[in-house]
Structure formats: C-alpha cells, structure tokens
Fold:
Amino acid sequence: MERWVLTSNLLGEEDTMKVTIIGGSRGTGAYVGAAALKAGDEVTVLSRSGNVPGDVRSVVGSATDPAVVREAIAGADAVVVTVGGAKGVKRQRAAATRTVIAAMKDAGVRRLIVQSSLGAGDSASQLPAPLNLITPIMLAKALADHNEQEAAAENSDVDWTIVRPAGLTDKPATGQVKALLVGQDGTLDGSIPRADLAQFILAAVTDESTFGQAIGVSGR
Structure:
C-alpha cells in the first residue's frame, strides 16, 4: 500500500483538538501549527524563541525541562514532537522525547506523534539507491539521536506514532504523500515538502490505525 489510508477519527469530524507542538517555532513544527490553526484547533507551541503567531499559546523554554514541558502539555489532546538537534547538546531529540513522555504520563495525555527521519531504525531499506547506502554514514550522529528517540516512544505506554520523513523542503504543498511501513513493497522518494508532512502528521493524530506504527513518508 503506497498511500496511507486514514481509517478512524477519534474525535467527531467537526470537533477540534488541543494540540501541543514541541519545537514549533520553525521548520516542520511551524507548518503543523499553521495546519492545525487552519483546521480550527487550539495550538500550544513550546520553543526556546517564543517566535510564534499571536493566536498560538506560547510556552518559552527548553524541551528537556520537565516543568516547562508539563506547562506546555497541560490540557492537550495530542502532543507532536518536532524538535531538532541542538548545538553542543548530545542527542537532544531523544532527551526531549523522554521528557515529553514522562510529562504526558503525569498529565494523562495519551496521543504522541514523533517526527524522526527516514533512515532511522530499520527504514534505510525504504530509501532509493544509493541514498540507502550513504544516508546512514552521512547522518550517523543525527540518526543515532533519532534511534534513541524512537526507542523512547516505542518503549512507552502512550499511543505513539513515529513519522519518518525523507529530506525536507519548503516547496509548496502538493497534496500528495507516499507513506510506507518497512516491509511494504516500494521505496520512498528523496524529499517531501514540510507543508505536506504537516498535513500528514495532523491527519494521523486522530487515526487509530497509525498507533504503534513507524511510517516512512515522502513526496510522490
């Protein structure tokens, strides 16, 4: 199956969500926030900069600070982790994800989406040749961080989904996303617009068929 089919909505079609984005001031997180706002959802963004739109609830601080994370996820229906690496910090993504999961357990928040990367875990086989050979070498440090991040999600008892995008671009959305589980036939293309990735993440939030799955995604 090359196109992921969203099968189950946990909320009614007209219900809105309270979504917290960890690392949402730029990159994929900013696109997820914009898509959620457009859908009428309530959005909270945790970031170091606080550089978010005025209609977003902003929590400023570190994603590895338990008190700050607890404030950010209070009352959330879902949490989306889109943090990147931090200069001088070893495995920032993994540390932030562990902090988020602990805070979610304390707050009784169940739904978690983690943005990882194609090439992490067992997904190198989904990359087209020769990227499937060189990506694990070129991105070894980042992928080690993502592997630890993914393990934190997989070993938790929350309702997690890991999304592994190909190379990210800021090109306009196409509305076309190719999504595969490891072991499904085919490979993924080399890139995906962040706007398309954001829509995929937001749609997956309420889809029970994505629970406990690590999904590779790219443009078509």
Notes: The radius of gyration is 16 Å. Residues 1-13 have pLDDT under 50 and may be disordered. Residues 18 and 76 are 5 Å apart (CA to CA).
